[in-house]
Amino acid sequence: MLINKFFSVGRMPSFFQILCMLFVVLLFQGCAAVPSTVVHLPRLEGAPRFIPVLVQFGDTLPSLAAKYLGDADKSWIIADFNDVRDIRPGQELIIPLEPFAKARLTRKGYQTVPVLTYHNFSETKHGLMMVRRSDFDAQMQFLKDNDYTPITIDELFDFLLYRKEIPEKAVVITFDDGWRGVYDIAYPILKKYGFPATLFVYTDLINGSRKTLNWDLVAELDKGGLDVQCHTKSHRNLNRVLENESFQQYATEIEREITECTETVKKKLHKKVKYLAYPYGETNNLVIAFLEKNGYQGAFTVKRDSNPFFMDRYALKRSMIYGDFSLETFKKNLETYSNEALRG
């Protein structure tokens, strides 16, 4: 029932609140023949803020989101809240002005967010770390056709920190290392679908060779919707002590892997990085302590699974998408809800 959206589970509305809700319904019915866009109501104690609207000719979900939420890209909030995908003139909608479904936590389960990881791309050849153009395009088309919504890592962290709701079928797209195929093949496909993504670079690789990116291309990607973050300086395994390396030397070197990547990105792109992808997906408590010391908000492994809101922010999971994956195998990495109930 629509009324359940305005009151928390297990909390019954007062008689006065029910009367106010009935007033909204009657007001809508009375206004059906009269042009009216907004009905302003006083906020009921304990209920989220919202705006009832009557759809006008020319209105779209993005235009309503731009008008009332300040961002056309938030049209999914209106769509999710009202359980609609399209709107028509005369249709009644409720626009929530504050989060209403953070983590989509219910008695039956909770939302999870898959993070996909790619490395390099090719026109025709494929390998473990090399995905064909046609396969990547088909995977992105599948996301679009099946109502998945790629989000940024900042939006993922709003979810992880229980600050905001995200789309019901949110997914994060990431690329590791800094290979030229990301620019030549993946980037145009992402632009075609309007999908954001994140590029984790290890800075020693950004040398402008025939197979790798240079900093001008990295800057273009960063401005074009691929948020650039760190993958360390040299791609060293941060969890392993080298032969004949003392613990002090090890600690100094792994912090240098983090700080030099951080400073290089800051110098080249004039931005402060906040997230790191662990080389080989491995980490330990000392590495995490250095990340926290250097202002990182979270980091990613390559453990294959999706992430609930209560996931450790420095051990986030990602699913590697390999070049030999069929579309059916790709689909298995898109779990967006867990039916496992949380128990106290």
Q: Domains counted in the coordinates: how many?
A: 2
Assembly of the depicted chains: single chain
Class per helix and strand makeup: alpha/beta
Largest sheet: 8 strands, mixed
Query: With helices defined by DSSP (H or I, 4 residues minimum), what is the helix count?
Result: 10
Overall number of strands: 14
Describe the 3D structure:
There is one protein chain. By secondary structure, the protein is an alpha/beta fold. It has two domains: 2-100, no CATH class; 110-338, TIM Barrel. Helices cover 33% and strands 17% of the residues. The protein has helices at residues 15-31, 61-68, 75-82, 133-145, 153-160, 180-193, 215-223, 247-269, 285-293, 327-331; strands at residues 50-54, 92-96, 110-118, 120-122, 130-132, 149-150, 170-177, 197-201, 226-230, 275-277, 298-300, 306-308, 319-320, 337-338. Strands 3, 6, 7, 8, 9, 12, 13 and 14 form an eight-stranded mixed β-sheet that branches. The longest helix is centred in the last third of the chain and has 23 residues, at 247-269.
